[in-house]
Amino acid sequence: MQQLAVLWDIENVTPQSGSNFLQDLFDFLEHDTHKISSSICFGDWTRYNLKRVSMSLFEKNFELIHVPRARKNSADISLITHATEMIFLYPHLERFVLITGDADFRPLLQTLRKHGKETWVICDAGNASEDLLALADKYFDYRSIGSELADEAEDTPSSDIASSVTKENAFQLFEEAVTMMLKQKKQPSLGSVKVKMKLLNENFNERTYGYSSWKEFAVDAMSKTQVAFDPKNKNNLILKRSNLGESMPEIFKLLLDTLPDSGEWVTFSRSSQLLNTHQVDIKQFGYNRFKSLIIDAEKRNLVETKYEDMKWYVRRK
C-alpha cells in the first residue's frame, strides 16, 4: 500500500464553505492501494473564514499549524521545513500532495523529486504558478476534485470528445492562455502555456487533434493566432498586437448568455437546459460534462457557484 502525505497551504487554496471538499479530497486520494499517513494544514487560524473550517479539518485528523499572517512567507517556510524533515523521518512516505499554487515551493518539489518522491499539486487555477505545476508529477485544480459537484445533465463519453472538438477551439484556448498569463504579468514559455491550457481545460490534449508533439501543435497554433515567439527571447511567447484585448472562448460567452445580468442564482440544470435550447453542443468545445464547463468558467472568474438545498447554483460575477 502506497503511503502519502498531504501538506496544505490553506490561505493559498481556500475552497468555499459547504463544498464538501474535505471528503472529496480523501475519496480522491485514498483507495485500495493508497493511504494518507500524514496530513498537515498551515494557516492563520485567527482569521474568521479559517476558524469555520478548522473543526472540520481537525475531525479529518489534520494537524493544524498556526502561522500568523504578520510574518511574511512564514507559512511557506513552515511547510517547507515540515516536508523536508518528513523525507528523512518517514522514509516510507512515497507521495507528497501539496495543496498550494505558490511558486515559492518549486525548490521543495525539486528536493522531493531528488529523493525519489512522487509529487502531486492541488491548486487554485486562478492564482497557481505554471512553473510550479510543471515540476509536479501530476497537478489538479481543486474544483475538479469535488465529486459532490454533480452534474444535473447527462455526461458525454470522453471518446466522443475527440471526434467532435475542433482545432479552432484549441487554437483559441492557446491564445487565451497566453493572453491571461501576460495580463497576470507572467512570461509565457512553451512549457508554461501548455500547463495553463490544461488548467483552463483539463480535457486538452494536442494528440486529440492529430499532432505528434506539443511543439508541433504550438507552432501550428501560432500560425493561426496572434501569438508569436519573442524576437528577444525565442523561449518566450508574445502577442503580435499591441494591446492584450479580450480572448474569451465562445462557449463561455454562450454560457453567460444563459445567466441573468441581475446576478440571480440559476440551477445547473436550468443553465444546461438553456444552452440546449440554443442548440449549443458542449462536446464541440471540448467538454463531456456540464460540470466541467462551469468549473472552467469559475477558474476564469466569470461565474461563482454555491451548494444549497442539495442543489448546485451558478451566477455571473
In short:
This protein is of the alpha/beta class and 317 residues long. It has helices at 21-29, 48-59, 74-89, 106-114, 130-135, 142-145, 158-164, 167-183, 190-200, 214-224, 250-257, 268-277, 290-299; strands at 2-9, 34-43, 63-66, 93-99, 118-123, 138-141, 227-230, 233-239, 266-267, 303-308, 311-316.
Quick one: overall form? globular
The CATH architecture designation of the largest domain is: 3-Layer(aba) Sandwich
Could you say which structural class the secondary elements and strand pairing correspond to? alpha/beta
Find the CATH topology of the largest domain: Rossmann fold
Number of helices: 13
Order of helices and strands: EHEHEHEHEHEHHHHHEEHEHHEE
Instruction: Please report the first level of CATH classification, the CATH class of the largest domain.
Output: Alpha Beta
Instruction: State the fourth-level CATH superfamily of the largest domain.
Output: 5'-nuclease
Proportion in β-strands: 15-25%
Backbone CA Rg: 20 Å
Sequence stretches where pLDDT stays below 50 over 5 or more residues: 147-163
What is the count of distinct domains? 3
Strand order of the largest sheet: 3-2-1-4-5-6
Q: Calculate the terminal CA-CA distance, rounded to whole Å.
A: 44 Å
Query: What share of residues is helical?
Result: 40-55%
SS elements, strand count? 11
Largest sheet: 6 strands, parallel
For the residues shown, what is the average pLDDT? 87
